[in-house]
Amino acid sequence: MCRNIRTLFNFEPPATDQEIHDAALQFVRKLCGTTRPSKRNEAAFDHAVHSIAACARELLDSLETSQPPRNREEEAAKARAKSAVRFA
Q1: Most buried residue, 8, 23, 34, 61, by most Cβ within 10 Å?
Q2: Share of the chain above pLDDT 70, in %
Q3: How many CA atoms lie within 13 A of 53 on its CB side?
Q4: Cβ-based neighbour number of residue 13 at 10 Å
Q5: CA–CA separation, 61 vs 15, rounded Å?
Q6: Nearest-5° Cα angle at 86, 71 to 16
């Protein structure tokens, strides 16, 4: 259920708002134990996603590192290779 929660810090280009929203959505889904809230809980669910996305953006914007930014394509290739070994 948490497949969209990925490391978002120190990439070039930086994480997009959509990536942060997707991670926040998956986090809230995991906490609630459901992928879709009932109509009664929809406002609370959406508010939680928005709040967590805002906090995540604030965190990513405030973090500092001396490491050079990572390349998204290289990291994705490493993950695919690791997955191929794991599930081969």
Answers
A1: 23
A2: 94
A3: 18
A4: 7
A5: 10
A6: 30
Find the range with the poorest average confidence among 2-6, 15-19, 84-88: 2-6
pLDDT in tens, 26-60: 999 999 999 999 999 999 999 999 999 999 999 99
**DSSP letters for 3-34:** TT----SSEESPPPHHHHHHHHHHHHHHHHT-
38 in Cβ contact with 62 (< 8 Å)? no
Cβ distance 69 to 11 under 8 Å?
yes
pTM of the model: 0.81
The token pair that represents 28 in the structure block: 């809230």
Residue 11 pairs in a beta bridge with: 70
Report the C-alpha gap between 16 and 30 in whole angstroms.
Answer: 21
User: What token pair was written down for 37?
Assistant: 């809230």
